[in-house]
Amino acid sequence: MEAIKLTSLYTAVGRFERRTDENGQHPVVIVNGREHMVNVTEMIIWTCCNWRILELRRIEELYEQMARGAGADVYADIENYVERLYYRGLIVYGSGETGADALYDLLNSLYIVPVTSGFFVKAMAFLKFILVNRMPLNKAKTVFRKETLSDSEKRVVDLARQTQLSTAELIKCVDRRLRPDQRR
Hints:
Layout: E1 7-12, E2 15-21, E3 24-31, E4 34-37, H1 40-49, H2 56-70, H3 78-87, E5 91-96, H4 99-108, H5 119-132, H6 137-140, H7 151-162, H8 167-175
Antiparallel strand pairs: 1-5, 2-3, 3-4
């Protein structure tokens, strides 16, 4: 009997922030309100997976490219680091007999958390763009522009605000044209 080879797909979760303390600056990844310090190799791997869905071999390729530019260990055991990041909750994966199965498994474990920013956060970003990044005023003003969402995007945001749904559940709701409960 032939063994079935599973396809695995990976992506990063959380958000990156830089922290400064008496030892200098260091990267942290924040997931569910918890800060996770990461070393250079972990940060590069997490960055490779951020906003991407990748197979392990592609993570290894991207890591090698980024590591060379950053002066990091190009020959690191990427599979071991990916596993470490997974156990710490900074990377998630899905697997299945096909790529579609693996993608569904991956999306089933993810949740969308709508993020809103108030006036103070936008004002600070605006000032940083102008004063630190030397961005022209007309470009910096885009921070205050309200984003126009399509009807589908509005529905997804409303559903995600109403209750915690996995990405796969949100996809099913959109496919079935379900609307958020109006009884808030």
